[in-house]
Automatic annotation (TrEMBL):
SUPFAM superfamilies: alpha/beta-Hydrolases. PANTHER family: HYDROLASE, ALPHA/BETA FOLD FAMILY PROTEIN, NON-HEME CHLOROPEROXIDASE-RELATED. Residues 26-263 form the AB hydrolase-1 domain. InterPro entries: AB_hydrolase, AB_hydrolase_1, AB_hydrolase_fold, Epox_hydrolase-like. The keyword Hydrolase applies. It comes from the Bacteria. This is Alpha/beta fold hydrolase. Keywords: Hydrolase.
Amino acid sequence: MAYVTVGQENGQPLNLYFEDHGAGQPVVLIHGFPLNGHSWERQEAALLDAGYRVITYDRRGFGASSQPSSGYEYETLAADLEHLLTHLNLSGVTLVGFSMGAGEVARYLGKFGSAKVARAVFAAPIAPYLLKTDDNPEGVEGSVFEGIMADIRADRPAFFRQFFQNFYNADVLKGTRVSDEVLQASWNVAVASSARATLACVPAWLTDFRSDIARIDIPTLIVHGDADRILPLEATGARLHKLIAGSELVVIKDGPHALGWTHAEELNAALLNFLGKA
């Protein structure tokens, strides 16, 4: 098991767990809430078979990484990613962020620039800005997120059970594109995450990434399902496409939020096609 130290809490190291496989052009896969790096298994297999080096890691608070009491805002999460890229001496990397992980990609490029990064991929992204404000009327009312936090505080395991129903569109896709076992496995990963991290990530979802997005100067792909109930296409991916000049948008028909599992072949094809243009 491999770790990179990204800080300390009370004199103890804070470590991120990562896996680094294969050779060739490096691709870093950044997972969504509330899963871990293993949620990319279907993308990792396709990328390795195509000759890429694939790095996955667990966000702090999740998976096998340390579970500190703080650091769940995007400034720190982007700095964690920079620690990993520096530790592995990576350059010419493709950053692929899913859902909350797309926030790390946006903030990383806004904060650190593209010196180490050749391409960016946003899958079912949280960007550009979820919160409804006077200058962001397409956003979501803040009361929605207050309700999510209340549900997490009241019964975190029950919250996750319902969350994954909409994450996978289980009422429509169960038995064809997702099984009961996948839903259970996702729940198992989620409940093993830090309770504090689970709650602290919700305010982070309201980060305004628009200034970060304005700094993106590399080839960019956006992939989104048109049946996403967690981060609907028109509120996120479609808007992001308009904000990044020259970006590509691939819309997956009937795709829910969990594209990496339910529509892995479609996502993998879009990803490999984009990488092949380098």
